[in-house]
Amino acid sequence: MKTIELKTNIMCGSCIAKVTPTLNETIGENNWQVDTQNPKKVLSVTTENLSEADVIKAVEKAGYKAEKLS
């Protein structure tokens, strides 16, 4: 298992509700979370086989942006 952390523009519970179906489908339920208290709105993903690019594509498919943490 590896953890991928990305900066997102997922700001609140409503945003999380919008991305949940797409991220659950791509990443799997209970394998991701967004820290909306963090100024960078960090998405943490636990996965065995997804790449960072796969996770970014899933977030973009849901209508949001994700990028590497700097």
TrEMBL record:
InterPro entries: HMA_dom, HMA_dom_sf. PROSITE patterns: HMA_2. GO terms for molecular function: metal ion binding. Residues 1-67 form the HMA domain. Pfam families: HMA (PF00403). This is HMA domain-containing protein.
